[in-house]
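QA checklist item 7 of 12: single-chain prediction sanity check.
[x] sequence parsed
[x] length recorded as 155
[x] structure emitted
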Amino acid sequence: RRAYLVIIIKMISDLLKASAFTHKLKSERSMLRAGWDVNEQPVIGIVSQPIDYAFINDPRFEGYSTYIMAAYVEFLQGSGARVVPLISTEDWTVTQEKINKLDGILFPGGDSDYLEYGRKIYEEVKLINDAGHFYPLWGTCQGFEYLAIWASDEG
């Protein structure tokens, strides 16, 4: 009897997995038929931060005024995303071109000031979302605080 019970439980488990897989395929197909853009490998921008004054004379940062912590890049790449830096010292038109090619943006945490550069990015992405295109923003720690500031400034 135990052997039959184990076989039945295994069959039910396999059926549930097959059902979930079939449901996933059907929902992906319906999204494609509905014209949804399904992206298996999103391209995410990460906002650069000004180098802290404590590191200005550090030879590792010679010639640089901004940085992106490797942990953010590794986190996104480990999740299957490709990463594009949004560098606060680049010309705004370059940032705008990048924004138009991205699937989302991460605002990092830390103790640095990218408030105004980030606000410009937020406003640009808000226009894209208001036009009906889903464009997610993620803020970690200070980045989340900045998102709250920018959103609260609107109302």
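[x] summary fact logged: Residues 2-33 form the longest helix (32 residues).
[ ] second reviewer sign-off
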